[in-house]
Specification:
Blueprint (H helix, E strand, L loop, with lengths): L5 E3 L35 E3 L3 E9 L8 E9 L2 E7 L10 E4 L3 E5 L1 E6 L2 E5 L2 E4 L1 H10 L2 E6 L6 H11 L7 E3 L21 H14 L3 E4 L5 H13 L3 E4 L6 H7 L3 E2 L24 H8 L5 H12 L3 E4 L1 H5 L16 H16 L5 H17 L4 E3 L13 H12 L4 H15 L17 E5 L12 E6 L2 E3 L1 H6 L9
Parallel strand pairs: 3-6, 3-7, 8-11, 11-12, 13-14, 14-15, 15-16, 16-17
Antiparallel strand pairs: 1-6, 2-20, 3-4, 4-5, 7-18, 9-10, 18-19, 19-20
Helix pairs in contact: 3-4, 6-10, 11-12
Length: 485
């Protein structure tokens, strides 16, 4: 058995498991360390008031170069000190973890995630329990759900993980979709007019939703009413758009648009107002062939930047539609029926000889890179819907790899997946980077993702507000059962 890389700075070493703090009574002030419920404790490896990481490489999430041989002190769930090893005083009684050869980086902040997954034609199952654990196991410490098929259940899961009653990331919970007629999906309520859009936003805001997502068939009038109602509550609106163009949504005040530019209808000739152009037709053909450096595209980039609209990259979902791409990881965790269902679709995709995605996918990558170069703010998520195949946690790691493939440096990709997401969620002062005073939302990686982004797959520990979770235990708790809960 390998020697543990943690010790105590005082006489009388105590094992990590034995150091787990007892569940405090409700009246106890627990500072800012995550309050871990008994049901969650089996997934915890580190829970102590004072913790020191020594001899570690730091990738801080800001895009700055990695720093070697660093020490980070955590006290009561917050980062208390950072500096070169030997220059930082380790407090008496601290639990010390020697992380030589490993990297400490911020927990990922992903902003197009779901707690549901396709289980049949037009049916999305509730995977809130298993996916929450898997997001955390993969290194996601904060996330926004980019659409809600489970109503109150999603809000309840957010409350539970945010409080440490269940294992998972901090969740910014999106309300059920804001959608007009035309989708044909029974799990989505249809908005009838602008007044109805306003009522739906106000209802779900009152119930605890903290974000909203407009969908493909919403009209400009409905979207404008929803944005105005959400902003009145200090809440943000994103959109997977089709009937409304990106430019129109920006003018209405939308905060974010989803799927990079692969959902944009701005360049479709003769597009009619408030009409969704088929995803399999003119819209995709246009994006597959347009030059990211062309004047119309650059003008749209500038408009989005001027209007402070953030764009979410979701390359992972589009990769599953593209022939010649690798099989996604984590499929062994799914129920056999769901795994086989995706494997059949993957094989069919691989056989395709005329798929639009062979051009669409790389050009979508190029547009995201060009938008960032034009001064735009990119954030990232995975969207585990479509035809399946994307497993929470594994797909988040893949999202960073795809950003690097798109032309971003590993440090830029990590910033997009950490600090950019936290800043968009209004939590940049609390998380998203390694800085004194912020939450100790951290992941320990075996390797150097600043040099080789695929090392981000090697997550050994995940800390939420100073409490260290065991990825292996989280994964094993749902192996072969993702699809049941």
């Amino acid at each position: 058995m390998p020697k543990p890389f943690w010790t105590r700075a005082t006489i009388g070493a105590v094992s990590v498991v034995a150091s787990i703090a007892a569940w405090p009574p409700a009246t106890t002030v627990h500072a800012q360390r995550l309050r871990v419920a008994p049901a969650v404790r089996s997934y915890v490896r580190v829970d102590t008031s004072v913790l020191a990481f020594t001899n570690v490489r730091i990738v801080d999430g800001t895009g700055a170069p990695a720093k070697e041989q660093q020490t980070v002190v955590v006290r009561d769930g917050h980062i208390a000190a950072i500096g070169a090893t030997g220059s930082v005083t380790i407090p008496t009684g601290a639990q010390v973890m020697n992380l030589a050869g490993k990297t400490l980086m911020p927990g990922m902040v992903m902003v197009h995630e779901h707690l549901f997954y396709p289980t049949g034609p037009g049916v999305y199952g509730n995977f809130a329990e298993s996916f929450s654990r898997l997001y955390l196991a993969g290194g996601v410490t904060s996330m926004r759900t980019g659409g809600n098929m489970n109503g109150f259940g999603e809000l309840a899961m957010a409350r539970a993980t945010n409080a440490g009653e269940k294992a998972g990331p901090f969740i910014d919970a999106t309300a059920p979709y804001l959608e007009g007629p035309g989708l044909g999906l029974g799990q989505v309520r249809i908005i009838v007019d602008a007044a109805d859009a306003k009522r739906q936003v106000e209802y779900w805001a009152n119930e605890g939703a903290t974000s909203f997502k407009a969908y493909m068939n919403i009209t400009r009038e409905q979207l404008g009413a929803a944005i105005q109602a959400a902003h009145a509550r200090g809440l943000k609106v994103t959109g997977h758009l089709c009937s409304v163009t990106y430019r129109e949504a920006a003018d209405l005040g939308i905060d974010n648009v989803e799927h990079g530019f692969l959902a944009a209808n701005d360049f479709v000739p003769n597009k009619q107002p408030d009409q969704c152009v088929s995803r399999g037709g003119a819209a995709q053909t246009t994006i597959a062939t347009i030059d990211p450096q062309s004047a119309p595209v650059q003008a749209l980039f500038k408009h989005l930047v001027d209007k402070k609209v953030t764009v979410t990259s979701t390359l992972t979902i589009f990769e599953t539609f593209t022939p010649g791409r690798p099989m996604p990881r984590g499929l062994d965790l799914l129920l056999p029926q769901l795994r086989e269902q995706f494997e059949q679709r993957f094989a069919s995709t691989a056989r395709s000889t005329n798929s639009i995605y062979t051009k669409l996918f790389p050009n979508g990558m190029a547009m995201e890179r060009a938008f960032a170069k034009a001064g735009g703010t990119l954030i990232v998520g995975t969207d585990p819907t479509g035809g399946g195949g994307l497993v929470a946690g594994y797909s988040n790691q893949r999202a960073l790899e795809l950003l690097v493939e798109a032309g971003f440096s590993p440090l830029e990709a990590i910033r997009i997946g950490t600090l950019n997401g936290a800043t968009y969620l209004g939590r940049g002062d609390k998380t998203g980077s390694i800085a004194v005073g912020k939450f100790a939302d951290l992941i320990v990686v075996n390797g150097n993702p600043a040099a080789q982004i695929s090392d981000v797959r090697n997550v050994e520990l995940v800390f939420r507000q100073g409490v260290g979770f065991d990825p292996a235990a989280l994964i094993e708790s749902v192996r072969g059962k993702v699809g049941l809960y």
